[in-house]
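Example record for the data management plan.
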Amino acid sequence: MMEFDKRFNPKELRDFLQKTYGPGVQVEVFPQSQQEVADEGADPEEKRKKDLEFAYKPREIKEHLDRFVIRQDDAKKVLATAICDHYHHAQMDRTSSDRWSDYKKQNILLIGPTGVGKTYLIQNIARLIGVPFVKADATKYSETGYVGGDVEDLIRELVSQADGDVALAEYGIVYLDEIDKLASPAQVVGRDVSGHGVQRNLLKLMEETEVPLRSPTDIASQMQAFMEFQSKGKVEKKTINTRHILFIVSGAFNGLTEIIKKRIGSKQIGFTGDKTTADQEGFLLDQVKSVDFLEYGFEAEFTGRLPVVVHCSQLSADDMFDILKHSEGSILKQYKRDFLSYGIDVYFTDGGMRRIAELSVEERTGARGLMSVCEKLFREFKYRLPDSEVREFVVTEDLVGEPEKELMQLLEEPARFRAQVQRSRLKKLEDRILEKYGVSIALTEEGYGLLATEAQKTGKDPLEFSEAWFGEFEHALRLLAKTSGDKQFKLSAEALQSLPDTLERWIQDSYGG
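Corresponding structural encoding:
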């Protein structure tokens, strides 16, 4: 069912559509929204004058990416610099009275195997600078008029992602993956609608062109045009300019290193074996030139529109471990939220995370392997634990190695991890005390045990209980901070039981020192 402006003649429109598209088409009339009326009356040129506020430096973008993407340092540096160059040029070009005729876009070509963070890098850049982002696979597109999508739909999708804000969409990022699948061998004869044809169609978009917001192959768009003509006697041609839209394409480019190796000579660079190692592959990709992409099957004009070439490296087990433990986008946060929705808390040891990382490498899908491993690992836990008395558990190396056995033991002994979890929670106490009072303390295992036991007696959370306990001695703690400097104090169970006397002795010793 389509919604139309009530100024149109519904009967005439229905007759036209049913004659053209069949009797199943229905027309229902709704009034225009206030926003639609306002948009109609606005000056199109004025609407285009909105400027993106971009004031980032390459180091700032790199530091932002470091929070989410592990490794790929060279790729992050090159991307951060290219992004800054592009948006600074675009900003000056848009605000200048004279458009820069020599402005050349820094469209980017990303090379790397699946799961190394290519898409994630670009998503986080777009999110940081606040521009719409569209991702698609190159294999779904074909030349206009053939089976498949129209590449101009990518630009229209930017407008959709920008909630209809054309001016913002004109600063967007288009990310096209699996671009290597568009490469066609030189010996192909005849019409190539899925390779060179799409490359040629992308050329004009990657430079500067006006793309109509209404697709000629979209029925809804054509009906809108029909209604507009009936109402106004003309059809306004609404377009989006691609001059400042950044294009980033990526692919695995299997076999590209062999082309590079052949060009520069294997013996010349000391490659004597048949198999190329990860380090050797990185070295070869650093030497890539436009001629290698031509040999791979790309047109010269298309390659020339991608001046920035970046490659991402394969991830090792150590990289996977760092992703799990340090990345703000760690998949473990998702699983922690999943279990918390059932009132179950889950903690991860270094040993458990390292074993997950090792198993994920065996999947041979990069960081995506982490999701596959975790889904298999926690599937039965998610099913069985919500109906049990278990309220916390710890993912250890043993649990990852034998999940069925560990699950059965956990169901038989729901509190088996309680003491370990309480100690894990209490580990944060030292940081809280240092942050709040300026005193550096280190609890012994016996000290942790005492606090956990006392908290359990009251039924309170160990960390909250312990913070309240130390809060009763705030004055003494702040005085100790002034007199002790950077000295660290060790708290045993015995020292905790007589905390007032312990603090007084520490203060006296600090004054005496």
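Summary line stored alongside the record: Residues 320 and 357 are 5 Å apart (CA to CA).
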